[in-house]
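User: Here's a structure from my thesis project, written as structure tokens. My advisor, Dr. K., wants to see whether a designed sequence matches the one we expressed. Can you design one independently, without my sequence as a hint?
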């Protein structure tokens, strides 16, 4: 029997990754920690996550548990997929049970609002004894479970940690590229969600392909500006964790962030939307953290700031579009 693998967080993405490992290596025991009792029961009884991936059959090698310490016991690799706002508290529950050298594959796409930390930084601060790799890229959970061909990227400071993650997760339909740019990969994965909310706003307002193309392009430009200011490699944002994930999330029908933007454009307040949905789009908190990061680094992020205002200050969505279009004229590039 091979060593067990743990996944912390049974939202749609954590469940999809647990299912991926369970189907790839049938001799693996894959333990998925779920916060919700009905998810634990549904997976163990029916091999279905009834809350976050209803109707999607899961690997019989997948076992759900209610105790995160039970999930990680004896696991040399732990996939971390808890929501960004809960990650630190989840990892704190297992801190003294994680041995030296365990690899944490961080699959959460977000920023910590209070500290502005990347998810890999939260892992390092909470579990200093562990190695860390970051997984990101264009990947809807449902399509991964369906076996749709998907390409993503894993980044780490140590190439050996990237290789460990690749060996665990790569399949003929889930291709993983390597990167040493942890900051760029994580920042692209977090801030594309903000731009996707803006893309949903455009759709909800009945706007067309011209404004969508402009938004995606200028959104990528502001993400890249911030990433470079924080030490990321510019080319990272032209790859899977940048442009790839941004296109998917801003245009795909399965995007929760895009759906939030559509609702905002229709007049739904963020408070009402949040009350009606169990899974809150990560782009909401990322708009706050991203705007604060921009201010800290002296980088202008006009789209991110407008999204934040629409979400948390009640600014009408249409006004935000008009304000972006009437900003002072600027050069796109100039040498």
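Assistant: Designed independently from the structure alone:
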């Amino acid at each position: 029997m091979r060593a067990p693998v743990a996944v912390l967080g049974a939202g749609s993405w954590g469940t999809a990754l647990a299912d991926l490992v369970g189907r790839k290596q049938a001799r693996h025991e894959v333990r998925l920690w779920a916060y919700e009792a009905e998810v634990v029961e549904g997976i163990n009884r029916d091999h279905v996550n009834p809350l976050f991936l209803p109707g999607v059959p899961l690997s019989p090698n997948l076992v759900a548990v209610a105790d995160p310490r039970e999930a990680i016991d004896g696991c040399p690799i732990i996939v971390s997929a808890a929501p960004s706002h809960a990650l630190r508290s989840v990892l704190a529950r297992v801190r003294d049970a994680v041995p030296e050298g365990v690899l944490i594959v961080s699959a959460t796409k977000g920023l910590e609002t209070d500290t502005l930390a990347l998810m890999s930084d939260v892992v390092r601060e909470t579990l200093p004894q562990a190695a860390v790799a970051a997984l990101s890229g264009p990947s809807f959970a449902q399509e991964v479970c369906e076996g749709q061909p998907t390409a993503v990227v894993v980044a780490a400071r140590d190439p050996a940690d990237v290789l460990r993650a690749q060996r665990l997760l790569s399949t003929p339909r889930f291709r993983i590229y390597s990167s040493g740019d942890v900051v760029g990969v994580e920042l692209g994965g977090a801030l594309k969600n903000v731009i996707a909310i803006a893309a949903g706003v455009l759709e909800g307002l009945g706007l067309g392909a011209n404004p969508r193309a402009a938004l995606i392009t200028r959104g990528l430009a502001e993400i890249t500006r911030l990433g470079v200011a924080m030490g990321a490699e510019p080319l990272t944002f032209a790859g899977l964790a940048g442009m790839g994930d941004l296109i998917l999330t801003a245009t795909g029908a399965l995007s929760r962030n895009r759906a939030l933007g559509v609702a905002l454009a229709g007049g739904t307040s963020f408070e009402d939307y949040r009350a009606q949905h169990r899974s809150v789009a990560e782009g909401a908190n990322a708009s706050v953290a991203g705007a604060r990061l921009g201010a800290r680094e002296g980088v202008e992020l006009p789209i991110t700031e407008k999204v934040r205002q629409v979400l948390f200050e009640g600014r009408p969505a249409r006004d935000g579009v008009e304000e972006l279009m009437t900003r002072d004229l600027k050069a796109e590039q100039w040498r």
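When you compare it with your expressed construct, this may help: The first strand starts at residue 5 and ends at 8.
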